From TrEMBL:
Keywords: Glycolysis, Isomerase. The active site is at H43, E121. SUPFAM superfamilies: Phosphoglycerate mutase-like (SSF53254). GO terms for molecular function: phosphoglycerate mutase activity. This is phosphoglycerate mutase (2,3-diphosphoglycerate-dependent).
Amino acid sequence: MFSSSCCSSEKSTSIRAKDPPAATVATQAARRMSKYTVVFVRHGQSVWNLENKFTGWVDVPLSEQGVSEAQEAGKMLKEHKYEFDIAYTSVLKRAIQTCNIVLEELDQLYIPVEKDYRLNERMYGALAGLNKQETVDKHGIDQVMIWRRSYDVPPPPATEDHEYYPGNFPWAKDIPKDKLPLTESLKLTLERVLPYWNETIVPMVKSGKRVLIAAHGNSIRAIIKHLDNIPEDVITKIDVPTGVPLVYEFDEDMKPIKRENAAEHLSGSYLLNPDELKKKIEAVKNQTKAK
Ligand SMILES: O=C(O)[C@@H](CO)OP(=O)(O)O
């Protein structure tokens, strides 16, 4: 079964609180009503995160640090006694590796794992392969932040002559040409991910299966925007750290229930203490800096 406690700071509240504040009582009541739990994990650091390159659909592996982060994610879940019936991941090896490492740590490699390109990272268009900071130096921080974090402005497209044109990826051969994106904004990523969430993952959750999703910074941002109805101008400021489990609880209508220690703007909470979490989120933000 899923454990009811989530993180170190939650543990300390139970020691501290003789007369829990009203908010805690409300959260505890909400938790009793929670029916389903889904855990998201962004893959650990990839070799292109390490080299600070825009990646998107390019299929690069985890770095050494990324492998350790995925192991840590698995250990966190094990510590809190999470178990899963099925896992979903993308067709990109950094997410698949993360999924396998997490399941290995949990000693649950036996569960089915479904891979689908609709959980892929956003397709980063012609920026794929470029160094993020060099792109800032060339185009300016404002332009790069529009490409990187605006809700609906996609980067320039990767046309057929581009080194990372997605039609050349072996795993993409069955994607119909009209569905093959040459670039994606977060909005387009959401439009790709959401049908998979609604039609494949939600029915599985509602059937009582305990679901793990190992995916990517922007495919997870897209899903949480949908789950928490996060406004367009707020989701632009939200970054997902690498290799930290993010736990969501839902009521029977799949409406998220706010967890104690929920991350800012989210109903879900990360299984990491706030200081470490902040450092990991800053590391993502700092991939592009103003000069
Ligand atoms: O390059 C990418 O594919 C993504 C994730 O690493 O980057 P960003 O965080 O800049 O959207």
